[in-house]
Design goal:
Layout: H1 4-17, E1 22-38, E2 41-59, E3 62-68, H2 76-87, E4 106-108, H3 122-137, E5 142-161, E6 166-182, E7 189-197, H4 206-219, E8 229-235, H5 237-250, H6 253-258, E9 277-280, E10 303-307, E11 310-311, H7 318-324, E12 332-333, E13 341-342, E14 347-350, H8 356-360, E15 365-377, E16 383-394, E17 397-410, H9 411-417, E18 419-420, E19 430-431, E20 435-443
Parallel strand pairs: 4-6, 8-15, 14-19
Antiparallel strand pairs: 1-2, 1-5, 2-3, 5-6, 6-7, 8-20, 9-10, 9-14, 10-11, 12-13, 15-16, 16-17, 17-20, 18-20
Protein name: TldD/PmbA family protein
GO biological process, one term: proteolysis
GO molecular function: metallopeptidase activity
Length: about 450
């Protein structure tokens, strides 16, 4: 394949010659393979390949973006013609433009170790999926399977701007999962587990994933509804990251600029208890969302968003930064068919000093949430309401399973009462430890 950076440089140069005041182009190519096994038999095999290119052009304060599923130079003329024709008729946007903080040179991802040389074949993936499902089915009480799965993917991203930036990096992914059912008839319960990593050497044992999925499904049998009332809620790490996701949405520069964030007036103030921080680090080695540059060619760097409970920064791309009179934080994210927008990378919540068992020790009656469904979040007020399932906490220990309940509150108040444990691990891209929040409203029986 032709050097993707050279291809994009040719495309951008073509756009400039055709009359664009500025331009940038992105190419995303990749291959993915996935296998699903059910009841020990290979049920699904998928393989996909793509090689997509996107071009953004600027005509004064107007801009447009077009994309194609082929990066062949003989189609560049048509692509440029379409983009410029669109740019000349769309409304003006005084905040549009290439990001001023983009690097004027070449950047690659060599220091981040994002590309594994191991590439498993179909049989290796099939065996991994079989091991996960078999371990789950071996758990007493598991009665059926929704399948074990394993996958591999490799992608490459290249970006070029007319301001002189060019960059390229590759990333790989390995994954394994299992989903099973326990019980029978209308009393069945489902649960799952999965793991996804950049390097195969870091992937959990498939049997461990399967066993945990099976054990969790059996533990959820015969759930009851909790009573309605106010009580402490403890979020398991596989759902606590949703709270961090709500926080990320509220400090997203686009939301703040539109005035649709409940935290828009809180910059420089305390939003979390003292000692707690929120950090976004796109430079984490082997990180699930690591990258050497953002979608506008800005070199990435760790960013402290919340320090000792105080809000220090929004998450900004070039456009939202101009709207707010600030500088981009290097958090532009984009695809080939959409313009950049602010987005986090490897986001985590830090500051927990006690174990999960210590965090729950004084709870006489509370809720331990392991699954959430539905979402009613008011971005303007922070009002929060979500369906949940999990276990009762009684006298500091997990007790009977519960389901069909709603957890409600206000995110501003919830963030202020948030208590993290010390079990943070990096497994999902957006990661938080076990989290406790007192005085939540529970709607149950």
């Amino acid at each position: 394949m032709t050097d993707p950076v050279a291809l994009l440089q040719e495309l951008v140069a073509h756009a400039r010659r055709a009359g664009a005041d500025a331009a940038d182009a992105i190419l995303v190519s990749g291959t993915s393979v996935g296998v699903q096994v059910r009841q020990g038999r290979k049920e699904e095999l998928e393989r996909s390949e793509h090689n997509d290119v996107g071009l953004r052009v600027f005509a004064g304060t107007r801009s447009a973006m077009v994309s194609a599923t082929s990066a062949e130079p003989n189609g560049f003329g048509r692509l440029v013609e379409q983009a410029l024709a669109m740019a000349r008729v769309v409304p003006e946007d005084r905040f549009a433009g290439l990001c001023e903080r983009s690097a004027p040179d070449f950047i690659d991802g060599d220091g981040l170790d994002l590309a594994d040389t191991a590439e498993p074949g179909i049989e290796a993936l099939t065996e991994r999926a079989r091991q996960a499902e078999a371990a789950a089915l071996a758990i007493d009480g598991v009665t059926n399977s929704q399948g074990g799965s394993a996958g591999f993917g490799r992608s490459e991203i290249a970006l070029v701007t007319s301001a002189g930036f060019s960059g390229r990096y590759a990333r790989t992914s390995h994954s394994v999962s299992a989903s099973v059912l326990a019980g029978s008839g209308t009393a069945m319960q489902r649960d799952y587990d999965y793991h996804s990593v950049v390097h195969l050497a870091d992937l959990d044992d498939p049997a461990r994933i399967g066993r945990h999925a099976g054990e969790q499904a059996v533990a959820r049998l015969n759930p009851v509804k909790p009573r309605t009332g106010h009580m402490p809620v403890v979020y398991d790490p596989r759902v606590s990251n949703s709270l961090l996701g709500h926080l990320a949405g509220a400090i997203n520069g686009a939301s703040v600029a539109r005035g649709t964030s409940f935290l828009k007036e809180r910059m420089g103030t305390r939003i979390l208890p003292s000692g707690i921080g929120v950090v976004d680090d796109p430079t984490r080695r082997r990180g699930l969302r690591s990258k050497p540059f953002d979608g506008e060619g800005v070199p990435t760097a760790p960013l402290v968003l919340v320090e000792d409970g105080d809000l220090h920064s929004w998450v900004l791309d070039g456009r939202s930064a101009r709207q707010l009179g600030l500088a981009s934080t290097g958090h532009a994210s984009r695809g080939t068919s959409s313009p950049p927008s602010p987005s986090t990378s490897n986001l985590c919540l830090t500051g927990g000093i006690v174990s999960p068992s210590q965090l729950m020790a004084d709870i006489v009656e509370g809720i331990y949430v392991t699954e959430m469904m539905g979402s009613a979040i008011n971005g303007l007020t922070g009002d929060y309401s979500r369906g949940a399932a999990g276990f009762m906490i009684r006298n500091g220990a997990l007790a009977e399973p519960i389901a069909e309940l709603t957890v409600a509150g206000n995110l501003i108040e919830m963030f202020g009462r948030l208590q993290p444990a010390n079990d943070l691990s990096f497994r999902r891209g957006t990661d938080a430890p076990t989290i406790r929040i007192d005085h939540m409203m529970i709607a149950g029986a």
